Amino acid sequence: MFRGPSPARLPPFDLMCNDLGLPDAQIARHLGVTTRTLRVWRRRGAPRAAQLALFWESRWGMSAIDAEHGNLVSHYFQAAGMHEREVKRLRLVVRRLEAERGTGREVAANSPFMVA
User: Fold this and answer.
1) What's the rounded Cα separation, in Å, for the pair 35 and 4?
2) How many whole angstroms separate alpha carbon 37 and alpha carbon 43?
3) Of residues 1 and 45, more confidently modeled
4) pLDDT digits (tens, 9 = 90+) for 8-24
5) For 103-114, b where at least 16 C-beta lie within 10 A, e where not — what string?
6) Contacts with 13 (C-beta within 8 Å, 6 or more apart), sequence order
7) Which residues, at least 6 apart from 53, have a Cβ–Cβ distance to it below 8 Å?
8) In this predicted model, what pLDDT tens digit does every residue of 37-86 receive, in sequence order?
9) What angle, rounded to 10 degrees, do the helices at 13-20 and 48-55 form?
10) CA separation for the pair 52, 31 (Å, rounded)
């Protein structure tokens, strides 16, 4: 899955440039173009590559990254809790099996040991 926004969801190039709050010379240097080219792009629109380069530097791109990280942290936290509960359950099963083995009585292969 692509992480970059579709062209319809990209903020206008001029708005992203203004949002960065940097001088045009610094933005142009970051994009590898002249300040004149940057001024033309601000008026007419920039190529998609330049738009995406500024998107990830803008607050919209940073917000998308933060949301992705937040979702991943939540997912992994839930997965860790699930695994922790499974380990606890398996430890109970092992204890029951060890207790039955230690009694000296024979245990059938199909005897219930996973009783809640």
Assistant:
1) 25
2) 10
3) 45
4) 788 999 999 999 999 99
5) eeeeeeeeeeee
6) 41, 42, 45, 46, 50, 51, 54
7) 30, 31
8) 999 999 999 999 999 999 999 999 999 999 999 999 999 999 999 999 99
9) 30
10) 10
